[in-house]
Amino acid sequence: MYNKLIISLFAILLASNLSVAQVSYQENESNSKLMVTGTSSIHDWEMAVEDYDCLVSASANENQEISIESIKFSCLAESIKANNKIMDNKAHKALDSDNHPKISFSAGGTVSATANSVTKTKGKLQIAGKEKEVELEFTLAEAQADQFKVSGKIPVRMSDFGIEPPTAMMGTLKTGDEVIIHFDIVLQNMPTGNTK
Hints:
Elements: H1 2-21, E1 23-27, E2 33-40, E3 45-49, E4 52-60, E5 65-76, E6 80-81, H2 85-94, E7 102-114, E8 118-127, E9 130-141, E10 147-157, E11 167-168, E12 173-189
């Protein structure tokens, strides 16, 4: 009886420690960068993502190892800008931003990452109202208990999401079907009570 009681108490304490170790991290936008790049028949192009949210549930240890439980990302389609009004309007129209204002990515299932190593996971990317499973490849850096940085890229074919690549100049300029989402995001421990 005594042994069973000790084992039960140990199990409760262990579960408590594990739950405390799991922490929510959110993006630090001032130290992060998110870009979309692509090609065209005339020149390459790039657009910055100016308004987005990224929430990661993870735990860290002293060996710069991060165990990621879930990833939730979203951005406003119309926050993707190139500081060129014509290009911005064509991109937002192609993304059908009026009917589908948000782009989102979510991933579940535990994946372990170590500093300066490439880690892969899969998640669901939704663009223009269509969802597709994609592979997310990232490198972990600056891993600490209160923050870490992830860097990588995701190649995306617009046609996979029913998007017709934009054209300009009477069809002379045609954008390529594939675009690359580049991310360099610093994630920091989310303060208690923050419901962002």
